[in-house]
Amino acid sequence: MTPKGKSKLVWFIILAILAGIWALLPSVEAFPGDKPANHININATDLLNVKTNPRQPSRIIKYIGMDVSFNPKLHIPNWVAWELTADETDGEEPRATKFLNDENVPGCADTYDYMYSGYDRGHMAPAGDMKWSKKAMQETFYLTNICPQEHALNNGAWKNLEVKCRTWAMRDSAIYIICGPVLTDTLREFIGDNRVAVPKRFFKVMISPYAEKPQGIGFVMPNGRVPGGIQACATTIDEVERITGHDFFSELPDELENALESQNNFPAWSRYTAKRKLPQKKHDD
Which residue, 237, 221, 238, is CA-closest to 229? Predict the structure, then answer.
């Protein structure tokens, strides 16, 4: 064999070895933010799964537009989770006005528990996110979705964040939201004959998986006036998990979950634009 032929054979052997090594290597995906949104092959139900703090009693209730982990001991939710899509923000259902005891849920507070208490009946999942369905709207007024809130919070930063969420859902096609009271605090105040617990703080976490770069963020607010507004309360989802003992968005691939839950970049929620538009979702009332 000529020297030239031997050289070609050596290169052939080297390339064959490299190809074999490459085939054995595990596939490595790009950073999650660089992947198109439709590569997140998880349905909404899985995204909203929450591993509730095991120290808190929990009864899971599936309503039309939201999932609730209800705490029958404290008579308020541990958390409430829902998906908010762009088309749902365009609903025209008028706002319901009557708060109701959910007779199917043991431990649910009664409307008179809040009378003369000095506290608002504060929605966790807001009525404004359920304008696409009369039944979904009415169910947000069940007291399983309600906590005692100072008016300064309910009509201030909490309300402002709800409006922001609808803006982000319209822009990013859909966002996934979980919120509730911080029940790891020592609770010393109770209202009504049922002794409904009054939280000292509230949390909200959300992810936007269909933005150009998927995003995540958390918020923790005092039950009262919020100095500095919602941006001052922004934090990571990791921190909210530490505070509450809950585990959010655990069905996401680990790489993506770690990336989204470590973010605290409030201005970024104003910069990124939607990657694609989701098809309209059909609802069965």
Answer: 221
* Interval 206-263: pLDDT, tens: 999 888 889 999 999 999 999 999 999 999 999 999 999 999 999 998 999 999 999 9
- Measured CA to CA in angstroms, residue 235 lies from 63, 94, 206, 216, 246 at distances of 29, 33, 11, 10, 15
Q: What is the DSSP letter of 278?
A: P
Pairing of β 196-197 and β 201-208: unpaired
Helix (H, G, I), strand (E, B) or coil at 72: coil
Neighbours of 243 (CB within 10 A): 16
Per the structure, the complete domain to which residue 214 belongs is given by 31-271
> Would you place residue 200 in the very low, low, confident or very high pLDDT band (cuts 50, 70, 90)?
very high
pLDDT digits (tens, 9 = 90+) for 126-150: 999 999 999 999 999 999 999 999 9
The CATH number covering residue 172 comes to 3.40.570.10
| Position 26 in a domain | no
In a domain, 163, yes or no: yes
| Secondary structure percentages of the chain, helix, strand, coil, to 5 | 35, 25, 45
**123 flagged as catalytic:** yes
Report H helices in 53-120: none
Residues 6 or more apart whose Cβ sits within 8 Å of residue 251: 42, 46, 47, 49
Q: Which residues, listed in sequence order, are joined to residue 196 by a DSSP beta bridge?
A: 191
Nearest of 189, 175, 66 to residue 123 by alpha carbon = 66
Least confident of 98-107, 143-152, 177-186, 265-274: 265-274
**Could you say which of 123, 151, 246, 283 is catalytic?**
123
